[in-house]
Specification:
The protein is an alpha/beta fold. It is about 35% helix and about 20% strand. The protein has helices at about 20-30, 45, 55-60, 115-125, 135-150, 175-195, 210-220, 230-245, 280-295, 315-330, 365, and strands at about 1-10, 35-40, 60-65, 105, 110-115, 130-135, 155, 195-200, 220-225, 250-255, 265-270, 280, 300, 340-345, 345-350, 370, 375. The two termini are about 40 Å apart. The relative contact order is 0.16.
Length: about 400
């Protein structure tokens, strides 16, 4: 492989700011005489690529330069496209690999194939000396896996859940909070006009950062996965607040993984390659419980996918571009197995988190008021800008 040729890919769900990372890597790379290869559709671009097929090359590989990345940071999404494919868990083999003897295993989602060897072969044939991977837990798990197999990997964390271990900030988080805040504030007029209880569902399967910070910026109650609330107490708070509000409404913000004592999270649909299924809307479950107990009317808003749409805000563009240039610096220094991060409010490089650490969680003791079901607002002196440290 050539040290002067680097690859970059985006995996998992899209978030605003990905194109800013890509552009900063390309501009800085060109400045240092490096060639930058875009791997399209995430890890699928390395597992499904058939280098002997020109159509496959066109589908999965694109050379990046200053000209074709000049304006990409002005929009959201990812120009490289994305997928939720991981090299070690491929369900459907591409045609050119079907019938070959490949490592396989059977799990919750059926038989999957390990195409690590195919990824290593394609990286070698493409002459890629370093691979930059932008993504959340699944993408980072695959990055750590490839690093253990000798690939020089630099990771960049992105997720609206902001729950990656080792960093206080992931690309996409600020825009998600900005979008959620705007939606809550706009919908106050409708909720108030009809004198109802507003229930907003946001991202957060396992961690409550998105709900907590949206509640923080809009001064509302929230329910997060880290703390199961008492349902009767929550409903009483919402009804009391509604009746005391001169405008006749109240609001609560729920993580998609929010829960209360006695509530069993419902799932539906087929499991993905990691064994995860979609969660039934906890907002609808809470709405049903409120109507059954009080006959109060509700307005339910699912904000999830709207939060990942559109262009990034200032903070995400700034952090994304900085993470990109940091990743390029790491390539120039010959680093591998590291991730760009914010630690104690400062930019740093940290080891790619081990998959067994799981998602980073909200520190309930310092961040969540377990009596009022709100963010804790006191005692913030000395905290980093995002009010939490990478270690908790």
């Amino acid at each position: 492989m050539s040290k002067g040729r680097i690859g970059i890919l985006t995996g998992g769900g899209d978030v605003p700011g990905l194109n800013s990372v890509i552009k900063s890597v390309v501009y800085r790379g060109v400045q240092h005489g490096l060639e930058v290869v875009g791997i399209r559709r995430g890890y699928e671009g390395l597992t499904h690529l058939d280098l002997d097929d020109p159509a496959s090359r066109a589908r999965y590989v694109v050379d990046l330069d200053r000209e074709n990345t000049r304006t990409i940071d002005r929009s959201g999404g990812t120009v490289l496209h994305t997928s939720r494919v991981g090299p070690t868990k491929i369900r459907d083999l591409p045609l050119h690999l079907q019938g070959k003897a490949l490592p396989s295993s059977t799990g919750p989602s059926g038989t999957t194939y390990d195409l690590t060897g195919q990824v290593l072969e394609n990286l070698d044939e493409l002459g890629i000396g370093s691979l930059l991977t932008i993504g959340g837990d699944g993408t980072l798990t695959s990055a750590a896996h490839l690093a253990r197999h000798g690939v020089r990997v630099i990771a960049i964390p992105k997720t609206m859940d902001n729950d990656v271990q080792g960093t206080e900030y992931c690309v996409g988080f600020s825009t998600a909070i900005t979008r959620a805040t705007d939606a809550v504030e706009r919908q106050r007029t409708t909720i108030g006009s009809h004198e109802r209880i507003g229930i907003f569902r946001v991202f957060g399967r396992d961690a409550g950062f998105t709900a907590l910070y949206t509640a923080h910026t809009t001064s509302n109650r929230c329910v997060i996965p880290e703390f199961p609330v008492d349902l009767d107490t929550l409903i009483e708070m919402l009804v009391t607040e509604k009746r005391q509000n001169p405008s006749g409404y109240s609001i609560v913000i729920l993580s998609e993984g929010a829960r209360w004592n006695g509530y069993q999270v419902q799932e539906y649909g087929p499991a993905d390659t990691y064994g995860r299924r979609k969660k039934v809307s906890v907002a609808e479950a809470l709405s049903d419980a409120i109507r059954a107990r009080t006959r109060e009317e509700t307005v339910v808003s699912d904000l999830t996918y709207d939060l990942r749409s559109g262009f990034p805000d200032f903070l995400d563009k700034l952090v994304a571009a900085t993470y990109g240039t940091m990743a390029l610096d790491a390539v120039l220094d010959g680093a591998s197995g590291v991730m760009t991060a914010l630690v104690d409010g400062k930019y740093d490089l940290v080891p790619i988190p081990a998959p067994d650490r799981g998602p980073r969680k909200v520190d309930v003791k310092s961040m969540y008021n377990t009596e009022r079901y709100r963010p804790l607002y006191a005692d913030k002196r000395g905290k980093p800008i995002f009010l939490t440290r990478a270690g908790g």
